């Protein structure tokens, strides 16, 4: 089988992979995205999309596509189901310290993935292309796919999620288990849901739950908790998980319980929450030579700040900006048949670009990942004194912390290709 030759290969057509490819495209640089599935992976439900993510989406020139499809949330309301009362209300409007207007929406994952993919040139994503091995070949990498295809590339970017082949090649270990699980659901009703455009948090003894309207018909909801052995068995059944969530939210308002009751079993999904420990992010190789990782392949994190997808979009913009400085044809004279000296020079420039990306993203990712882990421990309130502190004193602080951590701008792209 003939070897395929590409300048830049991105592994994974999730949010990080598609956004990185689109960022490069906006800067006049082509890439190939390898996706193991037969079609775009649009599984998953809602993504809490904070101000920092909208900055990235605007840099990629897709923010204007997604805004009209989703409600802008106006406030964060926390309710203690132990005290059976609201404990804080935090505005999600106003002006942030660094990034201007605060903007929060719950974006349906399918619509975000499709918005990114639809802006890419035809043929950018190669489906049914599962990466199984990476081989050094001079100043390039040889990628071996499950179907027998081999691809030679000057740059390899791993956006292949928490089980990343690329991250493993870089030396990262597998992800760590937080000890917690999350059940997620998506309610859709053509008659509407009648909820206010608010991020509604409900805290109880040993759990936290949230409800976010995506549009006038759709609500994304979740509940996190630390399961016992019996509950681990229940987690395999969507119907049992629905009843479990209803039991936890027995003191919640009737309109909230109704959302759970009317959610179809096929729209309920339960999974363990995993993360990459901060010491791995500190000591590990985010980049090495002409290889790097982004998104969940880089920094899988607990969901308690709602920043996983947001940080993936930040990664994409920064990474595209760094790599494009090397490959933009206006500034570089190269082709696939350059001599050894030029090939070595290109490799060194790629290496420097990926190191710049890694240095820019490292501490931001560590900050968000560690904060998410700590916030999750407090919000879930497994211990009595923690849940007491949370409900009596920390609810407003935690809500403001979520807003403050989203006050970040990853910067713009100097777009050189048309949007359409």
From TrEMBL:
All residue ranges annotated as the FAD-binding domain in the record: 7-328
Keyword ATP-binding: no
Keywords of this entry: Monooxygenase, Oxidoreductase
Pfam families listed in its UniProt record: FAD_binding_3
Annotated InterPro entries: FAD-bd (IPR002938), FAD/NAD-bd_sf (IPR036188), MOase (IPR044560)
Gene3D superfamilies (alphabetical): FAD/NAD(P)-binding domain
Keyword set includes Oxidoreductase: yes
GO MF, any single term: monooxygenase activity
SUPFAM superfamilies per UniProt: FAD/NAD(P)-binding domain
Similarity annotation: Belongs to the 3-hydroxybenzoate 6-hydroxylase family.
The protein, known as: 3-hydroxybenzoate 6-hydroxylase
Organism name: Arachis hypogaea (Peanut)
